[in-house]
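User: Sequence recovery, please. Input:
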């Protein structure tokens, strides 16, 4: 029999283990596919354009674009894991079995979040490893870079939970990614520094929340960016707190979990 101090966490550990095994069992889809996609980006922008274009003084285009591609892999996969897993559980109805277990809303969110963060960070590490064949990164602030990647994975794990609760169909779930996340990523400075834009568009780009994640991560790796690390971390922490609170309120109320 488990000791009293361990018993309240048994359901949490079981759910976390299930969520991790869920994406590992289909690793070809959840891990290999995004790694191949990122590798194609790296080939196009690294091997073909990397030495021919320069958008940041002192760095090749490959060096500039690699941090954005790494974080894009982290963001997309953290969001995909929590959103798809929770939505499918709602769709087929087995979420009801989970709700009768002695698991608190905080443990519920934490289990989905940690599994999603793990998937996102695994993809990010894999993309980073592959990127070494195309560009050498100076790693100006490695701890800051790791912290920003962790924050980004946490933030989009929360957003995935929120999207899974609001979506009513698979099409509506995919809209969050196709019409919100991807446009914000592409317009957030993955492929270009916003400092080269006209003043109006640069100002609008600073309203893009993903700009601070991407630029902060790039700043940590390269040592230069369009905004300060402090500003980037403040924005990331603020967004993470808002989305976590939002997700906690929805889960605590059982929003769309019982119907």
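Assistant: Recovered sequence (259 residues):
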């Amino acid at each position: 029999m488990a000791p009293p101090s361990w018993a309240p966490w048994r359901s949490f550990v079981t759910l976390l283990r299930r969520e991790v095994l869920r994406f590992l069992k289909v690793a070809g889809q959840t891990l290999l596919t995004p790694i191949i996609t990122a590798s194609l980006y790296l080939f196009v922008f690294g091997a073909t354009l990397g030495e021919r274009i320069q958008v940041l003084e002192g760095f090749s285009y490959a060096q500039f674009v690699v941090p954005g591609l790494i974080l894009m892999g982290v963001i997309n996969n953290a969001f995909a894991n929590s959103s798809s897993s929770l939505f499918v559980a709602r769709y087929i109805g087995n979420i009801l079995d989970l709700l009768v277990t002695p698991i608190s809303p905080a443990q519920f969110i934490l289990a989905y979040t940690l599994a999603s963060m793990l998937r996102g960070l695994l993809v990010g590490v894999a993309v980073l490893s592959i990127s070494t064949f195309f560009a050498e990164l100076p790693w100006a602030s490695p701890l800051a870079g790791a912290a920003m990647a962790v924050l980004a994975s946490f933030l989009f794990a929360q957003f995935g939970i929120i999207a899974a609760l609001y979506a009513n169909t698979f099409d509506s779930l995919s809209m969050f990614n196709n019409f919100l996340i991807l446009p914000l990523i592409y317009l957030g400075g993955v492929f270009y520094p916003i400092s080269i834009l006209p003043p109006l568009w640069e100002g609008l780009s600073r309203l893009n929340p993903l700009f601070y994640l991407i630029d902060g991560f790039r700043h940590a790796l390269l040592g230069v960016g369009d905004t300060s690390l402090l500003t980037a971390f403040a924005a990331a922490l603020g967004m993470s707190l808002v989305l976590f609170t939002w997700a906690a309120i929805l889960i605590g109320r059982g929003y769309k979990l019982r119907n």
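The CA atoms of residues 50 and 61 lie 5 Å apart.
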